[in-house]
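User: Hey, quick favor. My workstation is busy. Could you predict this chain's structure for me?
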Amino acid sequence: MMTSVSSLLANAYSYASANAGHKQSASAKSESVPTSAESAAPETMTPAKAASGSLASAAAAVREKIDAGYAKLGTTGTTRTTADEWDEIGFPDFDRQMLYAVTSNEGGIFTDVEVNAAKNEIANRISDIINTTDPLHQNPVAVNRAIIEFYDAASDDEKASFDWAVTRASAQKSYELSGGTENLSTGNPIIDKLMQAWDQVIARNGNSNDFANMPAYRDALMAWSQANDGARHVDVSA
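Assistant: No problem, here it is.
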């Protein structure tokens, strides 16, 4: 039972291991993207001026850098843009705050393919972590520990998101189930609840598809929403 769930929790490890060294392009994982999203002119999506150091400021900075990359490349990004072209546009140079600004589509100024390209850049960085930490792919404890460090290095804005809490909790549970013994608890009550949700999955001999249906997961989602003053609508009816 535990071995089965451990295997499912290690999806990020196994996927990145299998793809380590193979950069992902936006088109590699994207579904069909509406024509309007593909062809949206970046210059028509200029963000409002924002305070320095804020997520909005990071979004404005990365929007400018992407547009400069497009100008250099001579075209805008589409589902057909290759991994090497996204690299040329500049995604490997973006810091974590800038990547989060894109993946969260801060200000609504990024296209679907740009969001996907940022997510793929994060996946590429995790692949690099795996290659560096465990080149023979035989030490999931070390890899999961390194992936946790990667998530812990996120910006404060990213750490405030529910998605970050989910990935951090899943990485921690994967670390524990793979044999890790170090206490890596963050003290974050949302993550603690999500860890309980994984325990509920294990107790029911479930799989990763059951995670979001666990009572503790829903409790975590509601607690996160309340902590954010209901800033985002949370649907727990599904």
